[in-house]
Amino acid sequence: MNLSSLIYFSRLYGANTELVTCGGGNTSMKENGVMYVKGSGTALKDAVTESFVAMDLNKLLGIFDEEYPTEDAAREAKFVADCAKAKLPGQENKRPSVEALLHGLFPQKYVLHLHPALINGLTCSANGKEMCEKLFGDSVLWVPACRPGYTLAKIMKDIFDASDKPIKTVLLENHGVFFGANTVDDLAIHLNGMMNVLNAMITDYPQVDSDAEEPGYADLLRKATGKQFVLFNASPTALKYAAGKEAAKPIMKPFNPDQIVYCGPKVMYAATKNALEKANANVIILKGKGIYALGDSAKSAFNCMTLVKDAMKVATYAEAFGGEKPMDQELVDFIVGWEVESYRKSVSK
Ligand SMILES: [Zn+2]
């Protein structure tokens, strides 16, 4: 098999930081009943032939004929095991993306799945569904926020089955976007078309980059949390959200699974320096000063800050679509306990 076209667009989009942060996003290609899907723990921007897991497409889609337990842990364990069984011989040491089955649902040759901040400005907004219909009509399908893993796959399968025309673009609430196309050029047309429509709606652009000096509380935070790596952001947008408790509200709860994976489920708001002595989160908004991101390693602190910036972008973009809509707490709790995400976190360190 020749994966050069798949590798080409994986690297192209994977290297664009407006489209991909940390390990988020994945790609696939189908040929002669085999699907090549990005392996868990590999980065799109570094894609090579070995990054992809070859799977028997029929076997993978056979998951929908199986009975699944209703209990969360048992269901997700069986789901992961059944996905693994669909790998072709020789792929034993690879683990397919947790979203492999979603890729399999698309009839098109190529699938691109991303979590871009601009698109998530729409998928994480109060009026997301209505705006999706208004802006894209029935050419883009909206899938309400739900548990990842088997539940999401089954909901998408039912939507695909009920549709009388081929589905090319799917927006997942509080998550991201899927594009399916038979050529790499068509993927670019779909993606750029959506980005252009959304860009035209935005009036306030986030400014999240910061080289500000940390105000001198890093040691206090290290002592309180045990996390040794401390990053600080006092960008214009960070200062906007750090202006007070009400101002911080849009970024106090996670928008998407990536944020939970890399920042943890909690954001702390500290009105004063004294409150930092009881710091108990990886993300801390300090009133009037800026935002801290903490980690056990340089990489985990960097990833955490990357997702803090992503959250600020999503919240700012969401203003154009009726304001932000974070994930439900019930969904946050589910993802915290989700075995598959903890795997992704363990390989991302
Ligand atoms: Zn995803």
Quick structural overview:
The chain is α+β, with helices and mostly antiparallel strands and 349 residues long.
Describe this structure in words.
There is one protein chain. This protein has helices spanning 4-14, 57-61, 72-85, 100-105, 117-123, 128-136, 150-162, 184-199, 218-225, 236-241, 245-248, 257-263, 298-318, 329-336, 339-348, and strands at 26-31, 34-38, 52-56, 110-114, 140-143, 169-172, 176-181, 229-233, 267-270, 283-286, 290-295. The model has no long low-confidence stretch (mean pLDDT 94). The protein folds into 2 domains: 4-199, L-fuculose-1-phosphate Aldolase; 218-348, L-fuculose-1-phosphate Aldolase, CATH 3.40.225. It has 349 residues and is α+β, with helices and mostly antiparallel strands. Strands 3-2-1-4-7-6-5 form a 7-stranded mixed sheet, sandwiched between helices. It binds zinc ion. Zinc ion (ZN) is lined by residues 99, 113, 115, 175-176.
